Protein: Phenylacetone monooxygenase
Organism: Staphylotrichum tortipilum
Amino acid sequence: AEANKHLDYDVLIIGAGLSGLYSLHKIRQLGLRVKVLEAGEAEGGTWFWNRYPGARFDSESYSYIFSFSQELLDEWDWTEHFSPQPETLKYIQFFTKKFDLKKDIQFNTRIKSAHYQSPDNSWLLTDEAGRQYSSRFIVTAMGILNQPTLPDIAGVDDFKGQAWHTARWPADHSSLQGKRVGIIGTGATAIQTIQEIYKMCGTLTVFQRTPNWTAPLRNTKISKEEMADIRKRYPIIFKQCLESYSCFIHVTDGRKTTEVPRDELFAHWEELYQQPGFAKVLSVSVDVATDHEANRLYSEFHAEKIRARIHDKVLAEKLIPKNHGFGTRRVPLESGYYEAYNEPHVKLVDILENPIERVTEKGVLTGGVEHEFDVLIYATGFDAVTGSFGAVDFQGIGGKKLRETWSNGIQTYLGLTVKDYPNMAMIMGPHQMFGNIPRSIEYAVDWVGDFLEWARDNNVQSFQPTQEKMDDWYRHVERLGEGLLANEVDSWMTGVNKNLAAKQKRSLTRYNGPAPGYRKECDAVKARNYSDFVLS
Ligand code: NA7
């Protein structure tokens, strides 16, 4: 602390979402001088920004939250198995208040640059308004999906009606009631939005480039009695999460798909289909994610389910993905998504058949037809994972720009640190375990907190990994990704966003699991007293 005296803080945290809030709580307990700098006007991160109608968890509420505080678990009641965004935001506000976090958060502070100062091993951050902040260490807690991208379609600025990205849903938007609404995109966000807003729109036109696999969420309310039971089961719930491949409560089927007798297999799938939540994605055999034939069989099972729900046979085929198998992209869970298309005022425009020519003053032009709208909604996704890093001018030793360092491929050690960017720890950085995100956040923050405690006790002024360790880690991540069908497909999980000017090549952006293996690697580094790092 003595050596940091000339600096504003010991630790600066960028972002006040779940990662940043828990980092603050953890690091403050070490007696370090710490501050969170947050771009938004309030805490919540993903759950602050994404307020579109229908936004909600599709993981079980009680598994997708902080587990570290028994008091917090005791004091908070969930009212739905899959919490809607307003309730999740309330939970985050409750957490923030309970641990009195706000006094160490500065809102409305968008960091534009973060430059490492080699002479004294510190960081200098500058915000949009030109204000500067210095610290020994920084923790990036910027989220993996926080840079919305608009489609790279001509004329986006010409539209004279109202238009917005789903992650910027206006707080005071006039109701969509009776309006002519267009929505571009059919990803997880679009699916949640469409199934909600079609009920109020006068007409709704969905522009689909790639259909997505999606299956029933089966959300229900949680009664007081049920909540009491869940509370008792918290230790079991978190143990299940800890032991599973991607930190969810659902357990994978150990059998090989092709070795199970067909009737037994379909009976099992039917049973999973009827269950709430991700069972239908995560409780099938592992080979559904790795074996083309197993995946084809399971995809066909779901295709039949979709056909049974859509009245128009031609339309049904358009809504069934043909070029990627079930689970190879993020499978969002829905509540009445397909039924929306049976309504006469809901129209699907397949833009592979009828490419969008441009956005006009009045709407969207496809194949010579102008679709006129009052409101145009962009559910077009994010510059995922590395996008939040790209939005800040990170410069490491010798002014080396992180944007450039990663432009030839992402390199990290443990997904937590990067060579030449000393004293920077990333929560939910690339090559970290994603899966059940709050579980991953909790682990990463605890790891970083322990590291900073050790650094404090050992008077460490700077740390960074070696190139060799980063190379080893990359090979390790690559090996784990081998054979996964998901890595053969373009998606935000494989780092592809076709809207960006510099078209991205498919790359490994995440640790492909299993989560227990990830934690084992990181635990071992701690047990070695962080000797993997160059320390000074
Ligand atoms: P996604 O999953 O990246 O989905 C974006 C959607 O927008 C997807 O259907 C895209 O089609 C479509 N899109 C993007 N750009 C265009 C253009 N230019 N023209 C037509 N269609 C376009 O983002 P989400 O917000 O839905 O979900 C992100 C994650 O948030 C999700 O996985 C959850 O975990 C939470 P494409 O597939 O590229 O053909």
